[in-house]
Amino acid sequence: MTKSKKLLLIVGLSYAVAIAGLATTNLLHNFFGINGVAEQRVNDDPFANFEESTPASSAKTSTPSSSDSGSAPASESEPVASSETTVTVSPYTETTTTFTRYRPGEYDPNHECYDSRGNEIIFYTLEIKIKKITDLRTNQVTDSNGYPGDNCLSTVYNQIKDVEKKYNVTVLGAISGDSSYNNLDHRLGYVLRNGQVLRSQTRTGNDSVFEDLVLWNDGTMSLYIEPGFTGTRRTPSLPTYTTADLTSKKAWQVWTFGPTLVYNGAVCVDEDEDVASPHQAGNQRTAIGYLGPYHYMFLVSQGRNKAQTDGFSLHDLAQRLYDRGCTLAYNLDGGDSSTFYCLDENGVAKRYPTQKTPRALGDMIYVVDA
After folding, report:
1. Predicted confidence pLDDT, tens digits, the chain (370 residues)
2. Is the preceding omega at residue 148 within 30 degrees of 0, hence cis?
3. Cα gap 348→130, rounded to integer Å
4. Does one domain contain both 54 and 170?
5. What DSSP line would sit under 29-85, residue for residue?
6. Which of 45, 184, 206, 296 falls 20 to 30 Å from 88 in CA-CA distance?
7. Same domain, 170 and 240
8. Domain total for the chain?
């Protein structure tokens, strides 16, 4: 065999091995996933064509509920599945955010910067009104092949840079999410991001007592439970959904942390309750609240810093969201994961990690001006 033929053979074999390796990697991800958890590859651009097939003439209008009404949100009833040619239209002509920082001695008009034990608290809110459902997004950090996993981590601030560059958008606000792929030996749960199902394994162990939060593509939010749910308190008579159900009913985002803080217009966590303990504790907190279709709130609090602030209990956190008109609110990953970012009214970026060095996380929730 001539040298040129040998070279061609080596190149051909190398190419075949590379292709086989890539195919094997994809198969392992799809069938076994990272750390044995089956996953799907994240779509490169799930926002581009999400509503393009919907004729404007067939749209139906939805009016957001008043944040002061105290009535149950429309999302607490069974959402009507949207057809391929119908989408609920936002009443807002543009996506806007309103940032407020609450700090003792600086801005605390209602004496809210103190917890139920008298400790000082610093917290931040971002009221969000979105023009279209694709303006409220999640980002899932992936590996080089586009697959998420519990080793795929990046700070919220670096994730913001990545999505702004990738999608040519401006991030108006962002918070830490539910750390859906972290600590897989402890918790599973559905992962549905930007309309795409990434994981279908149900919650396990102690986490099976928590309900999930879903944002539908008509702008409403509601709760549901996964098959195998073992909890009975707090939120009775919730529907049970599989990921196939969520897809058919047009779910846009799903979060699986918890617990639920406000339900049907009432605080639904006990005063001494915490995420992984029956005892009240001050902590950094991250939560998302629902004020009406296309109308939401981010809230992040500082904590575990004795020189500045002790931190909210879950009940304190729930009360702040209830007082701001949220008829549904949900606890997300807190502690050192809690991170808050926004552009203020002057377009200046505000960054509030709850620890000196921002923690690298697997996901974030963000709102864009697109």
Report:
1. 665 555 555 545 555 544 444 444 455 455 445 454 557 899 988 887 675 333 333 334 333 333 333 333 344 444 443 334 344 789 999 999 999 999 988 899 888 988 777 778 899 999 999 999 999 999 999 999 999 988 899 999 999 999 999 999 999 999 999 998 876 555 689 999 999 999 999 998 888 889 999 999 999 999 999 999 998 767 778 999 999 999 999 999 999 999 999 999 999 988 777 665 544 567 789 999 999 999 999 999 987 765 556 678 899 999 999 999 999 999 999 888 899 999 998 899 999 877 778 899 999 999 998 7
2. no
3. 20
4. yes
5. HHHT-GGG----PPPS-TTTTTTTTS-GGG-EE--PPPTTS-PPPGGGSPPPPP-TT
6. 45
7. yes
8. 2
Measured torsion, CA atoms of residues 237, 239, 240, 246, in degrees rounded to the nearest 10: -160
Gap between the Cα atoms of 144 and 162, Å rounded: 14
Residues 91 and 156 in one domain: yes
Q: Is residue 74 part of a domain?
A: yes
Is 37 a member of any domain? no
Residue 145 and residue 105 share a domain: yes
Whole-prediction pTM value?
Answer: 0.82
> Same structural domain for residues 220 and 181?
yes
What is the DSSP pairing of strand 136-140 with strand 170-176? unpaired
| 88-89 and 60-61 beta bridge pairing | parallel
In a domain, 72, yes or no: yes
Q: Are both 68 and 19 inside the same structural domain? A: no
Same domain? 17 vs 125? no
Q: Where are the beta strands (DSSP E) in 94-250?
A: 96-102, 123-129, 136-140, 170-176, 191-193, 196-199, 212-216, 221-224
